[in-house]
Amino acid sequence: MQQVRAMKRTLAAAAILFAWSFAALAQSGTSVSSMLNATTPCPPQTYLYLDQQGVDVKLDCSQALAAMGLTTVPLAVAYKSPADPAGIAGTTRKMLGLGAAAAATVITPTGTGRVHSSVVGDVANATSAAGVNFRLKYGTGTPPANGDAETGTDCGALKQAIVQGTTSVQPFGLECYITGLSIGTQVWFDIAASATTSGTALVTAIDWFGEER
Fold first, then answer.
1. What is the DSSP string of the chain?
2. What is the pLDDT of residues 105-143, one digit of tens each?
3. I need a surface site. Which of 36, 45, 159, 192 has the fewest CB within 10 A?
4. Could you tell me the fold of the domain covering 77-212?
5. pTM for this one?
């Protein structure tokens, strides 16, 4: 009976510590995901006092997390600015090869398997009054090269930009949020592009950002 009571006290203390840690971090402006995955998740000078058989036990946030058996890992973050890829001629979408570039647009999840990806840049078409169809894609395994057939999983809706002149460019932004990715498995991101009616689709000045959340 005494062992059962001791176990109940331990479980109750763990539950209190868990709830307190979340509350303390919320008050300090730290997100729950940061608490579970950041390298320094604990706000400074925050304490919990527990009455254990008439004895006050003082615990700080780090001790509370350790008591719950939680470990923290840094979430994956990646930022790349790959060189301008070769244009895609014709109206069939093909890959730009960003994931296979020297500054490869890849990320390896470490904690949650949830990744937000965003990319900005410019699109153009050397044929006047033509345009560019383009879509963000992702996948695992060997990243596709420039000019490869469209592959991977769609990551957001298909976009279209019409260019008004032979020297015009249009800025663009693409983003998506993916869940259920495997921890420790590299994920590539790329753009599939084509001309709308004729000419060559050009995607330039690319900045890509990937962040696990």
1. -HHHHHHHHHHHHHHHHHHHHHHHHHHTT--HHHHHH-SS-SPTT-EEEEEETTEEEEEEHHHHHHHTT----PPPEEEE-PPPPPPEESSS-EE--GGGSTT--EE---SSS-EEEEEEEEEEESSTT-EEEEEEEEEESSPPPTTPBP-SEE-S--EEEE-SSTT--EEEEEEEEE--PPTT--EEEEEEEEESSSSEEEEEEEEEEEEE-
2. 999 999 889 999 999 999 999 887 789 999 999 999 999
3. 45
4. Jelly Rolls (2.60.120)
5. 0.69
